[in-house]
């Protein structure tokens, strides 16, 4: 076969075990950790949402005036732990 530019056309052979034929279902099946059975996209969205909530919570805790933080018994070194505990449990 000749192409428009005079070069020969080549037939490409794609192995059947390529990405499209691997049986990828969008799910990660992990026998040890059932949490990994959620789809990758759902897992990433959840992780991104939690990270955003952590950053917002951390920002709010850091913005508490010193006298109010004293009343609530919140030390400056505790805000990261408190934000993490509030979001991630």
Overall SS class: mainly alpha
Shape: elongated
Count of all domains: 1
Rounded to the nearest angstrom, the radius of gyration is: 26 Å
Distance between the termini: 65 Å
Task: Write the element-wise H/E pattern from the N-terminal end onward.
Answer: HHH
Largest sheet, strands/sense/barrel: none
Number of helices: 3
| Poorly predicted runs of 5 or more residues | 12-24
Number of strands: 0
Query: Level of helix content?
Result: 40-55%
Mean pLDDT: 75
How much of the polypeptide forms β-strand, as a percent range? under 5%
What kind of oligomer do you see?
A: single chain
Organism: Rubellimicrobium roseum
Protein name: DUF1127 domain-containing protein
How would you describe this structure to a colleague?
This is DUF1127 domain-containing protein. It comes from Rubellimicrobium roseum. There is one protein chain. The chain has about 90 residues and is mostly helical. It has helices spanning about 40-60, 65-70, 80-89. The termini are far apart. It has one domain.
